[in-house]
Amino acid sequence: MTAKNIIHDVTFLSKKSQAATKADLPNATDLRDTLMANQGRAAGLAANMIGVDKQIIAFFVGPLPVVMLNPIITSKSGLYTASEGCLSLTGERPAKRYREITVQYDNLNFEKQTQTFTDFTAEVIQHEIDHCHGILI
């Protein structure tokens, strides 16, 4: 298990991440391991939070970590305002989120997947995808 340090550099975190490739699979593993090491503190992480400017996110569905490469939200509904925290930032801030989202992404075998998520899991995924685009709460 290779847990990495969490980055707090707002300049780095504000940069748009590059598309992930098969060469980035070790980074995906490091991200999953870092999420596992922060279980109880983090519901999800994006690769730029560990210093890697790639479009990779990891989050929990129940006790299980899920990793998505190159995630794209293809549909969304049910706009609301959430109050969110982030391991890279101090405090909580309001964020516009959707109760239901559909995400297209590559799995760890680089197979295209499409999945719908709701409620808290959807909120976490939106937060992490925002990280991939350099958007901070």
TrEMBL record:
Enzyme class: hydrolase
GO MF term set: peptide deformylase activity
Keyword Hydrolase: yes
Domain of life: Bacteria
UniProt xrefs under CDD domains: Pep_deformylase
Transmembrane intervals: none
InterPro entries: Peptide_deformylase, Peptide_deformylase_sf
Coiled coil: none
Family annotation (Pfam families): Pep_deformylase
Keyword Hydrolase set for record: yes
Family (UniProt): Belongs to the polypeptide deformylase family.
Protein's name according to its UniProt entry: Peptide deformylase
